[in-house]
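Ig-like domain-containing protein
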Amino acid sequence: MRLKAIGSLVVLMVILLIGNSAVKAETTSESLKSLFNKGVTSAEKANFTFAQKQKIREMNKVLTSGKKWSESESANRHAAAKAGEEYPPIYEVEPNDSISQANPLRLDEIALGTLDYYDIDTYKINVTKSGPLAVLGLMDEYAFSEIGFLLFDKNDNLVDIEDIYQEGKLLVEFYTIKAGTYYIKAFNLNDYYGDGYALMATMNFGDEDTTPPAAPQVDRVNDKDNVLRGTAEAGSVIEVSVNGSVVGTAITGANGKFTVSIPVYPAGTVLSVTATDSAGNKSKATKITVASSTFTGWVVENGKRYYYTNGVKNTGWFFQNGKYYFLDKTSGAMVTGWLFTENKWFFLDKQSGEKKAGWIFDGGKWYYLDAYGVMKTGWVKDRGAWYYLNSNGSMKTGWLKSGKDWYYLGGNGAMKTGWIKDGAKWYYLYSSGKMASSTKIGTYRLGADGAWIK
C-alpha cells in the first residue's frame, strides 16, 4: 500500500500494526523516532559480535557505487533467489508493500532498495531454526533519510524487539524467534526520500571468527589479460593490489570461484591477491607475476602443471621430446594416473605425466598397456608368455575359466602348461594351456575335475 502524506509517523506506526491484536495500546502511541533511537545499551548481552561485519562493508560499498539494476534484471535476481541460487545482492522489486507482495530474501543475503516517503518495502525470510535473529539496515553515507524496519510473523503480527543497536548509518534490531516464515517491513523515518539502503538478516551469533581464510589460488595472468580468476573461501572479498594500491575487487561465489577486472599490466608486474572472510579476517597474500603473452613452456600454477604455446594453454594430447602427455580439455592441467578418453583407458605417470606403455603396477595390481598406451583386457602375449587381464584390466592369477575350458595362471600371471600341483592335487595343462580332464596322460588317469586319480 502507498500511504497518503499525512505527515505523522505515529499514524504510520498504527497502519503497520493493523490486525495485530497482541500489540499493546501504548506502543501505537509511541513515536517511531523515539522507538528507533532509544539507544538500548543491552545489545552486547545478545552476544552479537558482528560476524557479518564484512557483509556490512560490502553493503556500504555497493550502496556508494551507485549501481542500479533494470526491472528485468531485478526480476531475474529474485527468481534466482527463489531457486536458492547464489545471486546476491538483490534489488527491491515494486510493488512490495504487503506480505503478499514481499520480495524473497535469504539470511545473510543483501537487499538493496530506495526509501520513498510513505513507502513500505517488504521482504520475506524463511528461518529453519529457532534462536536469536538480527536485522541490519544501512544507509548511504551521504543519505538524509533514516531507515526504520519492523519484523512480522506469517500472520502479519508484529514480533517484539528485544534490543536495538545504532551506530551512524547502521541500525540493528535483535529478536528471538522460532523457525518459520517472517517478513521485514522497511520504511522511511523522515521527510527525505530517494535515498538508497541495504538490508540484511542474520543468525550468525557467537564467538567472533578470528581465523583467516587460506590464501587464494590464482590462475595465470599475462600481459594481455584484463581479468584475474581463481578460487578462495566462499563469500570472501577478493582484493588485487599492485605496489600496495588496490586495483580490483570481487566477491567469491558459493563455489569459491572469483573473477576480478584489472588493468592490463606489462610482463613482470607483481600482483598481490588476498581474501577477506565475512568476519573481516584477511588471508596471506598470493603473489603472482604477470607473464609474457608469447611465453612457451611448462609452468606450475596452484600445484598443477600446464604447457603454454605463445601464451596459450595447450589442451588434449601433447607430444614433446618423444613423450606424450594429456592436458585437461577444459582447464589445460596436466593429467596423471588413469585417464579415460576416446573410449579407451590410458595411464599417465603420477609424477611426470608421461603416457606409459607395457606393464604397470598400480593399487596393488598389475595392468598391461599396448604400444599406444591403451589398457588391454582378455588374453595378451608378452615375451613368449600368455597372460589374462580382467575386464577392469587387472592381471589374473590362479584358475581361470574361459569359455568351457580351464586355465591356470601362475603367481606372476603367466599361463602354465604341463603338470602343476595346486594344493594336494595334480593337474595337467596342454600346450595351449587348457586343463585336461576325463582322460589319461600317459599312465595317469584324470577325473572330470581334471585332478589326477591316484
